[in-house]
Every structure is written in structure tokens, then in C-alpha cells.
Amino acid sequence: MINLVDYYQKHPGQLAACMGQCSAAFQAALENHHHGLTPEACDFYHTIETRDGIYQGDWDLRGHEDEYLGHQVFEGRRVVELGPASGWLSAYMARRAADLVVFDLPFGAGPELVPHPDADMDQVTASGIRSVTRLRNSWWFTKRALGFRATAVYGDIYNPPADIGRFDIAVFGAILLHLSNPFRALQQIAEITSETIVVTDVHSASVAAGMPTAVAFNPTPPPNGHVHWWALSPSVVVHMLALCGFTDAVVTHHTPERMSERPPMFTVVARRRAKLLSGTQRQSM
């Protein structure tokens, strides 16, 4: 029997290899660990609709999945979803993709935090770890309730497991704003993605009135500001992806109609047109 808590304590945060996470036995252990979860043990980021009822989340993407994902075709593709939250989009892609892998923070880890001098950062850190755990619970609750197939891998997005394999498509659903180094995250995942990267994010008022390539650092006050590192314009995302070798980009703009506040969003779908040089090749130039 695999002891998951012990496993992630021995390999905290920066897991440089899957070390068996993709195996059937490990996935079964994850399923067993999350078996019997109730909604009370979950924080729902997405609104989840099941046969037993609707579980309300902050983001209601029902009927908006195709626009959110840039009208991307997933059939026959191997897909990695970075930061799957409560799994509503996971379910949508899993019904179409040949293989879906979701990648998220490991057990015992919390989100990257923007330090604020007036905050009790130990308390904020503990709260973040609890939130990540409850969010992970919601993904497994959704997976069981909706019955979709996906492989879950947990590790460091800045140092993804070397043995996770390659993907046709990578999807970043509103997570770049939560990362201290969004370019490095894109760069690392680009190196294991062959065809397409999809990035969706929120149009922020912090950059809407600025230059097309505007970036705002930590635009939101606490408590949300602890996990809101950046506001990025679509052009910034396009430029980042181009530097990663994904130079053929299309930007679409959309709004989830089921959400009362109707947040303006954008999606960048970028396709690889240039082969990235390996680290060794870059050093020799």
C-alpha cells in the first residue's frame, strides 16, 4: 500500500521525477486516498453540475468551455492541464482527449505567496495549504461524480517531472497570475509540448488602460493579493509564448455568461513554429 502523505513528505514540493506517480498503482492509491469525499471537505473553484446536484463555485464555466479553451480541438491528443482547480474543464477535455494529465501542487504545499509586511505570513501560509488541500479534494470529488478519466501528477511547475513524457497540447487556465515567474512556467512546459499551448486569463483593469504590452505587479490588495502576483495583457502572453517557440498565436476575447459579474477574459492559442534549442545547444552558441 502506497502511503501518499509519507511519499510527498519525503519528496516535498520540487519533485524532479514522477517516480511512479503515473503508474496504475499510484493512481489507485490517489483514488483510494480521496475516496468518500463529501462536498463539505471541498472548496469549489468551478461550479460543478452532477446528477446529484449543483455545487456552486466562484467560476461558473458551464456552456462556456469551448470559448474558454480557445475552440481548441483535443480529439486524439495527449493533453496536460496545469492547475486543474475543481475539474470542470478537466471533465470537458477528458471526454475529448486521447489522454489527459493534470498537474498541480503536491500534498503539503501551498500557493506561492506575495509577501506583505503587515500580514502574518505564517498564518497566510497555513491558510494557503488548507485551501490547496480542499481544492484538490474538489477535483477528486468531481472526477468521481462525473466519471471522467485522467492521470493526476503533483510537483513543481518550474521543474516538471522529467519522466512525465511529452504532450501535444498544454493548457494554462487562469494560473499565470498566481505564479511569481510565469515565463519560466511557460518555458518549462513548452519544452515538453509539441503542438499547442492554450493560455486563458482575466482582463485586468490594472493593464486595460495602459500599453498593449502592459504588466502590473501585485495589482490586488490582501487577502487576494497574497496569491495575485501579476496582471498580464494578451500581448505579453503572446510575446512570452513566441520566445518559447510558439510563434503562431490567435487571441480571442470572451465573457462567461452564467457569471453575474461577467469577468472579461482572453485566451491565447499558440502553435509551435520553431524548434526550441536544448539547454546544451543554447550554451554552445
Write up what this structure looks like.
The chain is 29% helix and 20% strand. It contains nine helices and eleven strands. It has a seven-stranded mixed beta sheet with strand order 5-4-3-6-7-11-10, with helices on both faces. The protein has a two-stranded antiparallel ribbon with strand order 1-2.
Entry keywords:
20% strand, 285 residues, 29% helix, two-stranded antiparallel sheet, alpha/beta, 11 strands, single chain, disordered C terminus, seven-stranded mixed sheet
Give the SSE layout:
Elements: H1 4-10, H2 24-33, E1 48-50, E2 53-55, H3 65-68, E3 78-82, H4 88-94, E4 99-104, H5 121-146, E5 151-154, E6 167-173, H6 182-190, E7 193-202, H7 205-208, E8 215-217, E9 230-232, H8 234-243, E10 248-254, E11 265-271, H9 279-284
Parallel strand pairs: 3-4, 3-6, 4-5, 6-7
Antiparallel strand pairs: 1-2, 7-11, 8-9, 10-11
